[in-house]
Write a structure and sequence with these properties.
This protein is an alpha/beta fold and 285 residues long. 49% of the residues lie in helices and 20% in strands. The protein has a domain at 74-173. The protein has helices at residues 40-48, 81-86, 90-103, 110-125, 128-141, 158-170, 188-200, 212-218, 237-284; strands spanning 2-11, 14-24, 29-33, 55-59, 66-68, 176-180, 204-208, 221-226, 229-234. Helix 3 packs antiparallel against helix 4 (110-125). The structure holds adenosine-5'-diphosphate and magnesium ion.
């Protein structure tokens, strides 16, 4: 679960969000849509804490882990593919690093022993012994075979880089998963893999995408950024389109009705004033 409370953000004169309060709950996949420049990427950055709102808050319940599909394709150049995936779980990766450093110490002392016991306990709780196998499975599922798991990201082709970053985001079953345009640069098989992954994912997903077919397959809700607000609809993209078209027709019908009323009123006033002038004319005679 992740929620926002009265979020406001503006850049200069441009107000992107005004008092946005929403709740995203587990078991749901929210498709975040809106025109280019509406603020979709910015909204995800506010949720992840990369951008501070002007006012308002984002609340992630304590102990929940949030993961983001990284947009920088070069940030992990020097790391091996498998390591890059493991780095998706920051705490687990930090424990691995600290453990390795301790065990490599030539003068390993009693305090180091105590510390490593603590680390081993936390490592176990986080399912650390399974981590490499799970990361490897994700890469294989995305079409990167085992011999390439040890290759530095720098030496992978662009398609594989994107797949490694996707595996990194989903690694370790995050509680909240934020994906900005995940299907960009993905081949059809990887898109299908992601669809299957998201369909069986039990936690909270918020995904920005222009791919209607993808949104239709995976979303349980649509969050539509529209005039400084984010409107939430239950249902997939097709449902959202029908609902919003119906709302538009409804508004149009109301407007037409208002137009009819205005015409009736005008006619009434015209008739009334004609009668009034007639009767005044009658009075004069
Ligand atoms: N750091 C920033 N400073 C000023 N304006 C920004 C900044 N980041 C984004 N914007 C502006 O905010 C608007 C929303 O951007 P963005 O969230 O990237 O939109 P979207 O992802 O919906 O296409 C755009 O008009 C963009 O130019
Ligand atoms: Mg964007």
């Amino acid at each position: 679960m992740i929620s926002t409370h009265d979020l406001c953000l503006q850049y200069g004169e441009r107000v992107l969000f005004e008092d946005v309060s929403l709740k995203f709950t587990e078991g749901n996949c929210y498709g975040l849509i809106g025109p280019n420049g509406a603020g979709k990427s910015t909204f995800l950055k506010i949720l992840s804490g990369d951008v501070d709102p002007f006012s308002g808050q984002v609340v992630v319940p304590p102990g929940l882990r949030l993961a983001v599909l990284k947009q920088d394709h070069f940030a992990f150049n020097e790391f091996e593919a498998l390591t890059t995936v493991l780095m998706g779980h920051e705490r687990l990766y930090a424990i691995m690093q600290e453990k390795d450093a301790l065990y490599a110490k030539p003068d390993f002392n009693e305090a180091d022993g105590m510390r490593s016991a603590e680390l081993e306990a936390e490592f176990g709780e986080l399912n650390g012994w399974e981590a490499e196998a799970q990361a490897g499975e994700l890469l294989c599922g995305l079409g990167i075979p085992v011999p390439r798991h040890g290759v530095a990201v720098r030496d992978l082709d662009d398609g594989d880089k994107v797949r490694v970053l996707l595996a990194q985001a989903v690694f370790g079953d995050p509680d909240i998963l934020l994906l900005d345009e995940p299907t960009n640069h993905l081949d059809v098989d990887s898109i299908l893999w992601l669809e299957e992954f998201l369909l069986s994912f039990q936690n909270t997903v918020i995904v920005v995408s222009h791919d209607r077919h993808f949104l239709n397959r995976v979303c349980t809700h649509i969050a539509d950024i529209d005039f400084r607000q984010v409107r939430m609809y239950t249902g997939n993209y097709g449902f959202w389109r029908e609902a919003s078209e119906m709302a538009l027709r409804h508004r149009q019908a109301k407007k037409d009705k208002n137009d009819d009323r205005a015409r009736e009123l005008k006619e009434f006033i015209a008739r009334f004033s004609a009668n009034a002038s007639k009767s005044r004319a009658g009075d004069l005679t």
